[in-house]
Amino acid sequence: MNLHYETPLVESELISQVAGCRVYLKLENVQNGGSFKIRGIGYHCTKEQGRGCERLISSSGGNAGIATAYAGRKLGMSVTVIVPQSTPNITRNRIEKEGAAVIVHGKTWNEANEYSLSLATEPGNAHIHPFDHPNIWNGHSSLVTELNSQLQGTKPDALVLSVGGGGLLNGVVQGLQSSGWGDVPVIAVETNGADSFAAACKAGKLVTLPDITSVAKCLGAKTVSQRSLDLIKEHPIYSTVVPDKAAVDSCYKLLDDHRLLVEPACGAALAVVYNPHILDDLQQQGKLPTPLRTVVVIVCGGNCVDIELLSKWKKELSKQDELKMV
Ligand SMILES: Cc1ncc(COP(=O)(O)O)c(C=O)c1O
Q1: Are residues 268 and 289 both part of a single domain?
Q2: Same domain, 143 and 189
Q3: Could you report the per-residue pLDDT of 116-164, keeping only the tens digit for each?
Q4: Is 126 part of any domain?
Q5: Residue 293, domain member (yes or no)
Q6: With a 6 A CB cut-off, is 265 part of the ligand 1 pocket?
Q7: Residue 260 gets which letter from DSSP?
Q8: Protein residue closest via CA to atom 15 of ligand 1
Q9: Model confidence band, residue 319 (pLDDT cutoffs 50, 70, 90)
């Protein structure tokens, strides 16, 4: 049973004008559960139920928890989500609205995850990791199968996505490889202060960040998955880090341009097409083709935000800029 549905792919004329190429938006923010997460997590939970599990234990500061709660409700399984203290109330409420129990544990996702692993050892319980499992990558790969049929097999010149723990990246690359699109470059975007993939690419080994300081808490895995690091040897993946301000500004721009409210974790990917010098730089380095015709951005989700939070972040970030100028 599929718990996700086919999301729209829309061509954005407004963003295309800014970016200087045709920009398509894959609207995962209107996906069941409000993000792409249900693709992989829905598939994983269905498999776990098939193995005889009755209860789902998730560790997630946001969208993965909501997706697990959604999957549990649809599959008739009970769900407990362990969230870190950094998870905003709106997200906790959204998880509870799906009928799941919420337990707050630890400062960051890593501590919440440790605790969830200890709960999952009880018989009948399944641990639903937010990003690091082959079932999750399999499920996420459906996004590319869909994209392929929506673009009628026409290969895009590049694909832009956000990276937290790397589950979306791993699934999308798997999908590209199995669709015969193994040469489509992927621009893998993080924000400053949640950049564990960039740190790993630079070091050539996994790096654990001391803390998550970005406002894009949903990208806040201190260590990216090993699979994501391995993939850089198999696929053209270009790690890109943007400031929080660019991510938040891009959320505002999408709201103005398309009347869609998304969170900074998603604004990070949008920042690439709203700041075309990023594309130009990659072209100059020979990483993207010239001319660049078509770019697809995965609009990954928007649960962990409301208009008040977004304006609070905008104010805080412009204050930081003013202080820097003093
Ligand atoms: C909205 C959003 N975008 C992107 C990501 C990154 O996904 P992944 O952890 O699979 O890299 C997340 C992770 O929670 C997310 O919530």
Answers
A1: yes
A2: yes
A3: 999 999 999 999 999 999 999 999 999 999 999 999 999 999 999 999 9
A4: yes
A5: yes
A6: yes
A7: -
A8: 218
A9: confident
